[in-house]
Design a protein that fits this description.
By secondary structure, this protein is an all-beta fold. It has no helices and nine strands. The mean pLDDT is 80.
């Protein structure tokens, strides 16, 4: 028999256990993904869009003992990257991330979200002040 435990107010799937009536439920430690080793570095010296932003490279590691489902990145509230992983992930899962970001001059908020196969999520926020000399030719 399979037993699914989930939040009744959510449309997300819950945790599914193989269960025999009269037996205790198996233990399950809920642990969301880990977002680690984040680094933001200047990628290219050239200015993009007539001096409005610079290219930067965001790198890091996302790992989860139960497998990763997806990750996405927002810059200043706008989604700039989304990636969904395989249907049946290898367990445990480690994924190196590396992507280019266009950051305008001034204050930037970069948000990285990761969700695992148990639908638990993690979030990291970076505040980046881009004070590059964008106006110079």
């Amino acid at each position: 028999m399979k037993l699914e435990v989930r939040d009744q107010n959510s449309s997300l799937p819950g945790l599914v256990y193989s269960w025999v009536p009269g037996e205790p439920l198996p233990g399950h430690k809920l642990q969301g993904p880990f977002i680690e080793s984040l680094r933001l570095s200047s990628e290219a010296p050239e200015v993009i869009a007539k001096g409005l932003c610079h290219l930067f490279r965001l790198t890091g590691l996302i790992r989860d003992p139960e497998g990763l489902k997806e990750f996405y990145v927002f810059v200043n509230g706008r989604k700039v990257h989304y990636r969904q992983f395989e249907e049946i992930p290898a367990v445990p899962t480690k994924k190196n991330i590396s992507l280019s970001l266009r950051l305008p001059k001034g204050r930037n908020q970069i948000e990285i979200f990761a969700r695992d196969t148990d639908n638990l999520s993690a979030q990291k926020r970076l505040q980046w002040w881009n004070w590059s000399e964008l106006d110079r030719s």
